[in-house]
Every structure is written in structure tokens, then in C-alpha cells.
TrEMBL record:
Protein name per its UniProtKB record: Interferon stimulated exonuclease gene
Location, primary (coarse class): nucleus
UniProt-annotated location(s): Nucleus
Bias-annotated ranges (Polar residues): 77-86
Length: 352
């Protein structure tokens, strides 16, 4: 009888222990979720308040400053013109007492026009002497300046047995507007065994006075530092250059699903640069027997990037925002609360 009662007591105590564990786990999860929700709401309020404050400051401060400068310049201009008129009237009266007609000098007229033009420049924000903005799209993303974007393409030759090792032979870098920042032939570290002319466009005479790899690499690194690098299969170029570029600063047109979708290809397909340029840019590249041109390929990759730039950058911003946001705690994160040290004394005594 005693043995049966002790068994019953043990069974009931284990049942109570299981129920208690379940309730502790549930309470911990609910508490963690409430804290996370409260932190997220507080974080969103701070962000919204900061954005509103920024917009208000940016909207009013420059306008007030511009109005003040404009009024000052206009008042100075009017005062100078009045002084000029009065001085000319005096000189005219002294030379011709009977004639009161004022004839302005050419230099005074020029200074008056210059002063009025300066007031227009302050008011409008544009200079009348400066040339209009260069053609081409500016970056639609406020956080990404066009001066931060460059396009990169490299051509490789084969070294070693059978030309199986790829080494850099030419590198081209363009800015956002397609201007060539860098375009040089590079001497590989090892003797060339396969020029791969059909694809690289490199011939032996191109490398006669080519720049040494170490020197070219330093120049290229100085250009790419702090820049968003656009390219097609650009990680192959990074490998040939022996550099590591931050992932969030790379835009590879080979792997983005946006261009594949725009071209009507399946999501998992990685189309070549030649196919994408033909399909989306209506441009024929990499044709003929001369091989590829790194400047042409970099320009094609850059133009493809511009087609989806706004959506691409917004997608990356959303992803970074989601990664930085607090996540709901996982079940495993509260497992340590189930250890004996967190249990009440009466429960641990019953279980023993």
C-alpha cells in the first residue's frame, strides 16, 4: 500500500512539474514578445519624429537664408544704382548746366547687370554662367549618390599548364555617367600560356608595355575604395584582382532576380551579359572575332543596373532595415529558464 501511494505521489508531482514547466515557458515567451513589441513601437516613433524634424529643418532654413541674402543683394544693387545715378547727375550738371539728361556709361551698365544676375543666382540656385547638368539619369535613391557608383569589368588570360589559371590582363572602370576612370593593360605575374583572344580580346602585343600587376592593383583599389561596384559576374573580377569588396557595396547584374524577371527569364536562371544587353538594351556586344572589350562590357552592366536601380536599392534598404530590427525570441532562447536553479524550492523538493 505504501509503495502504491508513493508511486501515485511521484506521478502527481511529475504531472505538476510538467504543468509548471509549460506555464513558465509560456509566460517567458509572452513576456519576451511584449517587450519586443514595445521596443519596436518606441523605435518607430523615434525614427518618425527624426524624419519629420529633418524635413521641417530642410524645408524652412534654406528658404529663409536665401530670402535674406536675396533682399540684401537687391538692396545693395538698388543703392549702388542710386549712387551711380546721383554721381552721374552731378557730373553731368557740372559739365553741362543746361542739360539734365543722364547717359549711363557702359561699365556702370555692366556692373548693374552683373549685380542683378548675382541676385538671380542666389534666388534660383542655378548659375547663369554654368553649363546645364550633364545628360544621363541621376540616382533615384536619396541614400546613394551617383559619385559613389562605378562599373568594373576585367579581362583575363590563362597562365600555367594549359592556361588553366586566370590572371588579370586588362581592367576598365567607368563612373556613373559612363566616363572612363581607368582602362589599362596589366602584365600577369606568370608567363601567359593562353591569351584567350576569342573571349578576352587580348593579344601578345597588348602586354608588351603593360603595367605590373602590383602597381595596377594599388591604383584600382584606390578608385574602388568606398564605392558601390557594378559588374556582371563581378566576383570573378575581384578574384583576379585579389581583393575583397564589402557585399553590401556590390551590385552584380548576373545574380539579381530583377533583371531576369524584366527580361522574362526564370528566377533561377543567370543570363549572360550578352543576352541581357540584347534583350533589355537592344544592344549587340561581344560580337566578332576581336573578343570582348572591358569598357563595352562595363558600360552594358552599368546601363542594366540603371534599368532597375530604384527598385534594387529600395529592396536592399528594406533588407538592411529588416536585419537590424529586433526579432521575436525563439523557443530555444528561453530554454535556460527551465534549469533547476530557476525553479521554486517546493517543486524541486517534490521532484527529489
Amino acid at each position: 500500500m505504501m509503495a502504491e501511494e508513493s508511486k501515485k505521489n511521484k506521478a502527481s508531482s511529475w504531472g505538476l512539474l510538467n504543468n509548471y514547466q509549460y506555464l513558465c515557458r509560456k509566460a517567458t515567451m509572452l513576456n519576451a514578445m511584449e517587450n519586443t513589441r514595445a521596443k519596436k513601437k518606441c523605435h518607430q516613433k523615434i525614427i518618425i519624429a527624426g524624419v519629420k524634424r529633418k524635413r521641417t529643418d530642410n524645408h524652412y532654413k534654406p528658404l529663409d537664408t536665401i530670402k535674406l541674402v536675396k533682399k540684401t543683394k537687391l538692396s545693395n544693387t538698388l543703392q549702388e544704382s542710386q549712387n551711380t545715378l546721383s554721381s552721374e547727375d552731378k557730373s553731368t550738371d557740372a559739365s553741362k548746366p543746361g542739360d539734365s539728361v543722364f547717359v549711363p556709361k557702359a561699365c556702370d551698365h555692366h556692373s548693374l547687370v552683373t549685380a542683378l544676375r548675382d541676385s538671380w543666382e542666389v534666388d534660383s540656385g542655378f548659375s547663369s554662367e554654368a553649363s546645364p547638368p550633364a545628360s544621363g539619369r541621376s540616382s533615384p535613391c536619396l541614400s546613394l549618390c551617383s559619385t559613389m557608383v562605378v562599373a568594373l569589368d576585367c579581362e583575363m588570360v590563362g597562365t600555367g599548364p594549359g592556361g588553366r589559371c586566370s590572371e588579370l590582363a586588362r581592367c576598365s572602370i567607368l563612373d556613373y555617367h559612363g566616363n572612363v576612370l581607368y582602362d589599362k593593360y596589366v602584365q600577369p605575374c606568370q608567363p601567359v600560356t593562353d591569351y584567350r583572344t576569342r573571349w578576352s580580346g587580348i593579344r601578345s602585343y597588348h602586354l608588351h608595355n603593360a603595367q605590373p600587376f602590383a602597381q595596377a592593383r594599388e591604383e584600382i583599389l584606390s578608385i574602388l575604395e568606398g564605392k558601390v561596384v557594378v559588374g556582371h559576374s563581378v566576383y570573378n573580377d575581384f578574384e583576379a584582382l585579389d581583393i575583397l569588396h564589402p557585399c553590401h557595396m556590390v551590385r552584380d547584374t548576373c545574380t539579381t532576380r530583377l533583371l531576369s524577371r524584366l527580361a522574362g527569364f526564370p528566377r533561377e536562371r543567370c543570363p549572360s551579359l550578352k543576352i541581357l544587353a540584347s534583350k533589355l538594351l537592344n544592344r549587340r556586344i561581344q560580337v566578332g572575332k576581336r573578343g570582348h572589350c572591358s569598357v563595352e562590357d562595363a558600360q552594358a552592366a552599368l546601363d542594366l543596373y540603371k534599368l532597375v536601380e530604384g527598385e534594387w536599392e529600395q529592396e536592399l534598404q528594406n533588407k538592411l532595415r529588416d536585419d537590424s530590427a529586433p526579432h521575436k525570441p525563439s523557443f530555444a532562447s528561453s530554454n535556460h529558464y527551465m534549469q533547476d536553479e530557476y525553479w521554486p524550492d517546493d517543486v524541486t523538493a517534490d521532484s527529489q
